[in-house]
């Protein structure tokens, strides 16, 4: 028996999730982490705002 799978590609299953933000109080301030979307990859940068004021000096 010969099984040939040429031309078949795995499809990525994407859930419908919004961006999730986690903020955890730490000794030095607040640790921020967030969920990336499936279409976002390396090379994206972000600015972080508190009460409408940018709080980072350069994009993360």
From TrEMBL:
Lyase keyword on record: yes
Molecular functions (GO terms): lyase activity
The Rhamnogalacturonan I lyase beta-sheet domain, residue ranges: 12-59
Record keywords, A-Z: Lyase
Gene3D superfamilies: Immunoglobulins
Keyword Lyase listed: yes
Superkingdom in the source lineage: Bacteria
Any Pfam family hit: RGI_lyase
Protein name per the record: Predicted rhamnogalacturonan lyase in rhamnose utilization cluster
The organism of origin for this protein: Geofilum rubicundum JCM 15548
């Amino acid at each position: 028996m010969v099984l040939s799978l040429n031309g078949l590609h795995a499809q990525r299953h994407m859930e419908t999730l919004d961006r999730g933000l986690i903020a955890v109080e730490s000794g030095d301030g607040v640790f921020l982490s967030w969920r990336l979307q499936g279409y976002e990859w390396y090379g994206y940068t972000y600015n972080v705002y508190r009460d409408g004021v940018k709080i980072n000096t350069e994009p993360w």
